[in-house]
Structure formats: structure tokens, C-alpha cells
Amino acid sequence: VRVVKDDLGYEFRLGAPPRRIISLAPNITEILFALGLGEQVSAVTRYCDFPAEAARKAKIGGLTDPDIEKIQSLEPDLVLAYRGNPLGAVRKMRELRLPVFVLDEGSKLNNLIEMISRVGRVTGREPEAEALVRRLREEMEGIKSRLRKTGAGLRAFLLLPGEGLWTCGSQSYVHDLLEQAAAVNIAAGIPRPWAPFSREGLLAEDPDVLVLLARDPRAFEEARNRLRADPRLRHLKAVRLNRLIFVDENKASRFGPRLVEVYAELARALHPECFKENSGHQPS
């Protein structure tokens, strides 16, 4: 019997491929379905809405309030937990001898590759994980090769949805996404994943472009209109010149395979000149 350690350092025994898997996070659910494990997924959180089939699975609560009794009643042979699940809940599941394997969120796009490989290993889907990893790496390399033609990176500010000016600091994978897309994150000096940014700081930095995470194009338009109506922020260069980029919040807020799509879309929006038909090979 092979033994591997999860991201909390606990040992996990690898036996027969699991037939009843419970996912405690949306990104884990996406990875499982991408590996062809949809039928083996018994239950997911109420936030697991991609792919569409995931939304039809039984629900075991949310990311921070998993229903442990419900999880136990489903008799899973694998529970995939994630950063954001309360440690107390994870401990309780271990006490109940539930087969829990915990995965931590990475701070780099490349950490996603490692996570997919680990999920493939504990689910007995290593060949499928290798194929997915190979495809994602090819797509990432295709984008990177395009971006070699660009010069100095545009100075960017990423704005999260909601009140205030929340953004990503240097410990967030979204910061790495910006850097990979040849942008300079003006909030890189903040040593946290997510943090509020002051209006004064944003006005002083006056970035070249604003990247807006939004639920859908309509929410993006509403955010853009709020910026244009703001008596101070409307003077930002990016607002005046309409250098505002829409990024799908659902895709970008989950550390899963669709992040590579976000990387491609962000790179194209920031550097369209690198993606013209006559500029070389298209990304895979």
C-alpha cells in the first residue's frame, strides 16, 4: 500500500480507486470532473456550479460550514478538503476516521499543475492527470511565447468585486497571473494574498490599466460606470482612456484548470498586438 502526505502533513493510504468522492471546494470539483470522475463524485458544496453537472450533485454545505453528519452518512472513500475549510471540521472528520486528503492553494500558476497531479494520484487517475497537465502546459507555453514579443509590462491594478478597493497582493496566485501576462501589479508591495488599497494610493500610482473581476459583462459595465461617476477615480488614466479589462470572477477566483483560460484572455486583452494572426504561432 502506497502512502502519500497531504498538504497538512497527514499520511494518506492509497488503495483501490475511490468510488464515492466528496469535494469540499469548487476548484477541487472542477479538477475531479476534468479528470473524468464526475460519476464518482457523490457530493459537493453549494458553491460548486461548474461544470453544470456538478450543480446537480448532492450538497454537503459550504466551504466554511460543511455538514459533517451528511458527509459521514454518504460513506465516502475519499473526502478532498481544501484551504478555506475550517481546520476544526477537518480534525472532526479525521476523528470519525473519514478518508480526508487536504490540498492547499498555491501562490503561482505552476502550483495548479502540481495540484492536478496530486488529485490524479489520490484518485487513481494519474494518466488522465498527466494528459490534462500536458495540455495546460502547452497552452501556457503558447501564451508565454507570444508575450516574448512585448516590451515593458503595463502597470495594472486588479479590482475585486464589492465595496472598497480590494486587490491582490504578492502572495496571491492572481498576482502571479498578472505577472505571467506581462503586467506589473502596482499592489505587489503588499505581502498578503488580498488587501484593501487606498484611493490616494491608486490615484498616485495612476496605473495604465484596470483589471476588473466581475460576475458577468453586465456587472462589469456597472463597475465601469461607478468608476466613471466617481468624482476622483474618474480622473485615473485607465478610466479616462477606457483601459478597463473584464475578467470572469467565477473562473479567476478558483484555483482550477480554467485559470489557464483566464491567463489567455488576460494576455490577449493586455497585449493584443502579440496575438495577431501574423505574429507567430497561436497558443494551443
What can you tell me about this protein's structure?
The structure is a single chain. With 284 residues, the protein is of the alpha/beta class. It folds into two domains: 103 residues, Nitrogenase molybdenum iron protein domain (Rossmann fold), CATH 3.40.50.1980; 131 residues, Rossmann fold, CATH 3.40.50.1980. The chain has eleven helices and 13 strands. The strands form four sheets. It has a five-stranded parallel β-sheet, sandwiched between helices. β6, α3 and β7 form a beta-alpha-beta unit. α5 runs parallel beside α11. The protein starts with a strand and ends in a 14-residue tail after the last helix. The C terminus is likely disordered.
Q: What does the main sheet amount to?
A: 5 strands, parallel
How many angstroms does the end-to-end distance come to? 38 Å
CATH homologous superfamily identity of the largest domain: Nitrogenase molybdenum iron protein domain
Number of domains: 2
Number of helices: 11
Give helix and strand order, one letter per element, not per position. EEEHEEHEHEHHEEHEEHEHHEHH
Shape: globular
Strand ordering within the main sheet: 5-4-3-6-7
Q: What would CATH call the class of the largest domain?
A: Alpha Beta
CATH topology of the largest domain: Rossmann fold
* CATH hierarchy: architecture of the largest domain: 3-Layer(aba) Sandwich
